[in-house]
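One chain shown below:
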Amino acid sequence: MDQPTRGADRNQSLADQADPTTDEMLLPQLDDGITLLDVEGGRGVPIMQSLVLDHLLLHDGPAFWVDANGHATTTTLAQIAPSQRLLNRIHVARGFTAYQHYGAVCGLPSAVNKSIQRSTVDAGAAGRGAPGRDEDTSPHTPALIVAPAVDAQYRVDDTLDETHAKTLQARTLARLATYADGYDIPAIVTRNERNEFTEPVATVTDHHLECEQTRMGPRVVGEDFETLVYPVDDGAYYQTTFAYWRQLLAARATQVGVEPTTPTPSTPTPEGVGTGVTADGETVAATADPLLDAWTATGTGGR
């Protein structure tokens, strides 16, 4: 059966032209450990859901989602999911108070065990296991843990004073880190606000992704990732990063037999502007004032 096509796969031809080593063009890969996603200017529900669905497309196994503040809304999940079968692999528990949220996190291992038992029984009854896409993952064991707005319930619960709220949040974070390490899988979390209360969230995380809303679309930046292209309706891709265009043109020049070169300035340029080429083909240092360049050039009537 044909597997769902990811946006990154649709862009693979462009990626090959620009940089063959670049596999992920649109969405970052979630590595093992806890990843903190900070979204500027909003909750970023579709962005987080996209990261979850993209990870499930690449890896076997279910995702276990401990929800807060309605991030696991099925409205947007169903709209952006390329296959409805993906939604069957997402198990959601909701916590409407701090104790409910903490209880859902504590009960995650039991939910995992029940899921493994059920999936292995179903696979045995079918006479075969589900085909795997990733040799390092299993369709029975967890592929991802999701905990959006991990600070939300502990921040607003009136039954807890500030000290107890911080303690309960710290225990939640410690359990999530233990689960991610024990299962050797990623866990992605978000926080409602950046302040002193959520400093422990940033401390416990292994990876950090920041997303900002731009005119071209959401731009995600991490330690080893930066959004370079944005999809449009006709299948083309807009690009706003100068360095990427430079890679693209260098690759194109190699294809047509023109070896890309970078001119070396003959003299230092403190202003950092670069170099220029005269009518005689001489490479000269350029300043911030082109009229001054022409006035002081030797052999052209200048001083």
